[in-house]
Amino acid sequence: MPVKKSDLYSSIWKSCDELRGGMDASQYKDYILTLLFIKYISDKYEGKEFAPIEIPKGSSFKDLVALKGKPTIGDDINKKIIAPIAEKNKLLGTIDVADFNDSDKLGKGKDMVDRLSKLIGIFENPALDFSKNRADGDDLLGDAYEYLMKNFATQSGKSKGQFYTPAEVSRIMAKVIGINSSKVTSETTVYDPTCGSGSLLLKVADEADCNISLFGQEMDVSTAALARMNMVLHNHATDVQTIATGNTLSDPQFTDGENKLKTFDYAVANPPFSYKSWTNGLTNDKGVVNDKYNRFDGFGVPPNKNGDYAFLIHLIRSLKPNGKGAIILPHGVLFRGGAEAEIRTNIIRRGYIKGIIGLPPNLFYGTGIPACIIVIDKENAHSRKGIFFIDASKGFIKDGNKNRLRHQDIHKIVDVFNKQLDIPKYSCNVSFDEIEKNEYNLNIPRYIDSQEPEDLQDIDAHLHGGIPESDINALNKYWEVYPSLKNELFENGNRSGYLNLKIDKSDSNVGYSEIKSKIFSHPEFIEYAKKIDKAFNKWKKKIYDELFTIDKDVKPKKLINNISEEILKAFEDLKLIDKYDIYQHLMEYWTDIMQDDVYLIANDGWKAEFYYNTDKKEFDCDLLPKEIVINHFFAKEKEALEQLEIELDNIASQIEELTEENSGDESLIDEVKNDSGKVTKTLVKQRLKEITPSTKVYKNVAEPKEYYGDNYDEYKILNQFMELFDKEADIKKQIKNAENDLLEKLKEKYAALKVDEIKTLVIDKKWFAKIYTDIKTELDRISQQLTNRIKELAERYETTLPQLNEKVETLEKKVQEHLKKMGFEY
What we know:
Residues 634-675, 721-821 form a coiled coil. The protein is of the alpha/beta class. The chain contains 29 helices and 16 strands.
């Protein structure tokens, strides 16, 4: 079977993590990723002319496998495998950072041999043949590399997890700097002064429509090596040599002459937050910052113990006059005073800041504090009239002990920013005049009030009853879609400004089911559901041919981009339902299922292989699950099986009821219960044999009372159990025969399926069916929100304060009467 993306990632991580032992994840990653790198380049480039990476003879992954079990395995990996590849491809300092002969980390003697042999074995799996990856534009192992780095970052702790920028944040930065514009050519340059493992640079490169040149600098030697390997794994082998090592602030490696920085078309960065040692190498004998590149001239020198603005200024200075960039910094840079306030004012007055995007807390691996993306645009600085703000702090999902941006959060941020859309409580354009009035404070809450309005209580309604009309009018987004539903649910109360609920109550409380039924059966609700169906079918028709023509040349990332953009268009004009929620359902299904399906098709074509899954211990098909084939071709057989299952459940219930009826203090069935208190057929048969007189062979028929004597009542009960157990066994046999018969039919059907049949079943019955079901849940969720709110308001004001007082008085009188009868008075 071809390797599935999801299985590939999880299996590699699980196996590697099991062998880590006590080694720190930040160190262990260097060993794993180096082996992954060797496996990949061997599969991809060994024996190929003009390949970007040359594999010297004796240094391929096959030669690495041959070292398994050898006492010198660690030293041999260093000298016979890694060193020749590094020297031949100018990768010194890249793949030779991890020492495979380090006994302190890998163990001594046999421990080292066993551990390294097992590590190699993880990548020796025949399923991991990356030479057969045919999904053009998608590198399975490159993405697996990123997956592993994310997991290593999660386990590396605050001080060591900063080598990786979350892919979701990287995608936003890549999309808001305009790298996909028509002006981008093969001459375009992108720079990351704190590039870490290179993930942010690569996300920018992915957004460009052509090959661009990448430049990065990273202070940590092993992390810089990760970045270089990452370049190769993502088909950017030519950019390996432009990943430099060193302190960007004190010793920038990309310069034009002795005292001038090299400038780039685009720049992105995720520097260490509030870096306290940023002045190292930049101060003179008196401790004064002395920068020969004059980066801080005209801006101001950042505080000695906080380097946030040092990195921001460096990024600005590294951009060409028409350059654009984005940097991740803590929120403090937006409002802190002192030297930082002066720098912030000078940057704002130059018009360099295009926008600020506030992110949720706890996204990053090095810190839990909330951060923001500051978007820089020097090209349009002189004509800029203000700064565009987005507060995206509430759009995320919990992912373990971190928060993570969802697909819909990313797309919404990018759409709103690039289109400069003004959305209440989310985004707005703030003029420089207003910013100046606020003394150049850029704290996002000053300009965007993202707090939800407080749900105020109405005292008059509590006193006199009725639902405040203002609360009902606050649900206007629903009434715009269901205009007459409001009058169906509410009527005027006994005074102006208050309404009564027109629902027949089943009891003293407002009935949830009655409100829900009223909403779901309303003609306008039904009509709106049809509009959702229409939008779905419009999208389905638009993309159907693209899905039907998927072949081995498919570009999965391009495919999902196309169909996801179309679903946003299809649901764009529908009120009430959020198009980004619909988009999220599609993207989740793509990540969980559809992506793997497309990769299977890219490897094997539209092939529905019905095979025995040893893990699940059953026959199935990855691309076309058997449930779909059964529902489509064998509905009668399925129905018959389900009926037998119902009969079997009924028998089980009867056995349980019979057990319950005959249990108790003087139970006649204690002898036939096992240690778990369950009556078993074996024990019943044994007990019947014991109480049946030896002069007569037991028959499963009623016997005269006098024949069994004192055991007659017990016999009758046990006989009932036997009848049920026999029926149960017979039904189980029928089920087994029916399942075997169905399995044979399935084998024949899968073998006879034609390609067009497979396509239709997968696209219609699998992909579209699941996505449609998920979309319908949005309609249910919206209607349930309305139902819950109406019920909440109705219950809140249903009983007035005078009524409550009256009830309290009545109960108080009853209590006093009871106390008086008991001889107590007060």
